[in-house]
Amino acid sequence: MGLSLRAGLGFVGVALVGSLVLTTFASSAPLAGWWRDLDRRLIDFGADLARFFPSGGPGTSFGGAVFGPAVTVEGVWTSDNTPVLSITTDPRAPRLKWRAVAYDRLVGSRWDRAETVDLDIPAGQDLLAGTGELPTEKVATRNVSYVVRGVSGSLGVLVAPGIAATVDRATRLTLVKEGAEVWFGSARVDGAASYTATARVPIVTDGVAGALTENRLRAAGADYGPDLEAVYLDLQPGTAEGDVKALLATILGEARPTNPYDVARAIESYLAGSGQFTYDTDVLDVECGTRGLADCFAFSRRGYCEHFATTMVVMLRLQGIPARLVEGYLPGDRDATTGEETVRRSRAHAWVEAWFPGYGWIDFDPTAGVGQRQAIDPGPTLAPPTPAPSGAVRTSPRPTRTDGRDEPAGSTGGPVAGRPGIGPLILVVIPTVITLIVAFVLWLRRRMARPVQPEIVYRTVARMAGRLGHPRRPTQTVYEYLGSLSDAVPTARPELQLVARSTVETTYGRRRMPPDRLAALGEAQRRLRFALLRLLARRGGRRR
To answer: Which three-class secondary structure state does DSSP give residue 62?
Structure first.
């Protein structure tokens, strides 16, 4: 059975590669563009495929080192002081958070995006022109220019301190879409050692004409529009039950806010500063029964940044205030002379953005002891806005195509300029890929049913890494080999550390692993199957 299955998988794999090679080198080269960013596509495919399988235990978090199309909030937030990015900016500028991705949909303990459209943005073009991200009110901003260099792995996701404006390289922009509206999801800059970018940061100091102030936000009102509400007020069944609703009632009962801005500040202040919540990166021992993620945190009052931020988003949506979860990095260590800022993996962070009509997304950070709250001056008192007439429709710019023309009304984006046609893809590749996926799922289900053994996990990881160009030398110990492997694939460091620890403890220390530890090890093994694919890119780079 096993031999037949492996032979079948091998045949399907050869057929797939052959079809891709033939269609790439044919005279029309219909799939020539498909090979670009192959390593990123494989990783994203792995992340999407993982959502259909059970987590197999609490597992460990990536610690924010990889910002993909989705993130699952788990029992442990694992990070270390490995440098990830080097960012050079004006040494006199305030130190700001670096936003990477935004998520709009919470299902269980997983954040992702409901509907997206991808656009290829040429170098130097305004990234978010025509989207709902830009303020419609006159808000004073300052342009922040910065240079980003990758320290660990490829650059990948674009980071920005505010509203991303321009990048000196071609960028793949992922937008969240609803009706005629689009909002930021993420942006990627692949295949470069560095990039230079600009961002727009609102001025929040009173006394500057057009400054963004607290009283301007208090007077912003609640005219959100149906498309925005459909996406950023969504609460799936089981997301918000008795515990989180009771917590919200307590907060509102004490603060008695009268507008959306004061509601958001009250929630942020209570979670971060009341002393009733504990920042804890390991909540594997928390038992919440059938409670959802936000209700579990409201019940246990322990967790890390993703727990704090998720709970605030849920409470804002319960109050009818559009909100989303964002992830990126807290400010790094900056050289006061050169302005070079070293961002480490341990600075990965999650926080909240709430929507205010006319002003866009405003930053709130409710994590106790770790979060960095955005300080905004009060400013002069303003009158509340006049309610919009019944039936009024709010218009917004249409998204812009990469060739400079407007998207037609009701368009879902269509093929992006520069993408290959899908005719040969449908006729040749799709049936083969479906066959390969079905065979893979059957094989994986059979493997997942076996009990996890640390020594077998170690041998499996070593065998896969060896085939991908990183073999173990005979003189290397378990710790030495997996340590060198984690240097080659930094994003897999937490999983590799868990494998090394478990193998040494059971093989040489004769320890018996508890069930939750074995479950975490099994989850680590499943993550490594995809993470180690990055060795392909390294090997290809060395050959070139």
So the answer is: coil
| Residues 100 and 329 sit within 8 Å (Cβ to Cβ) | yes
- From start to end of 249-406, where are the E strands? 278-279, 302-303, 323-329, 333-334, 340-344, 348-356, 360-364
Mention every residue, 6+ apart, whose C-beta is less than 8 A from residue 427.
none
Instruction: Extract the tokens encoding 94.
Output: 């305030």
Dihedral of the alpha carbons of 424, 427, 432, 438, in degrees to the nearest 10: 120
Strands 340-344 and 83-88: antiparallel
| Owner of token pair 């674009």 | 158
Are 67 and 157 in contact, with CB atoms under 8 Å apart? yes
Phi-psi region of 200 (alpha: psi -120 to 50; beta: other; left: phi over 0): beta
Convert the pLDDT of each residue in 61-97 to its tens digit. 333 356 889 999 988 887 788 888 999 999 988 899 9
In the sheet that holds 98-103, the strands lie side by side as 116-121, 171-178, 181-188, 98-103, 323-329, 348-356, 360-364
- CA-CA distance, 83 to 255, in Å (whole number)? 41
From the list 189, 221, 31, the residue with the least C-alpha distance to 124 is: 189
DSSP 331: -
Structural contact between residues 197 and 148, judged by C-beta atoms closer than 8 angstroms: yes
| pTM of structure | 0.65
CA distance 13 to 532: 18
Element (H, E) at 543: helix 534-543
Contact 535, 466 (CB under 8 A): no
The per-residue pLDDT for 444 is 63
The pLDDT of 135-160, averaged and rounded, is 85
Give the max Cα distance, the chain: 77
Among candidates 212, 184, 211, 210, which has minimal Cα distance to 356? 212
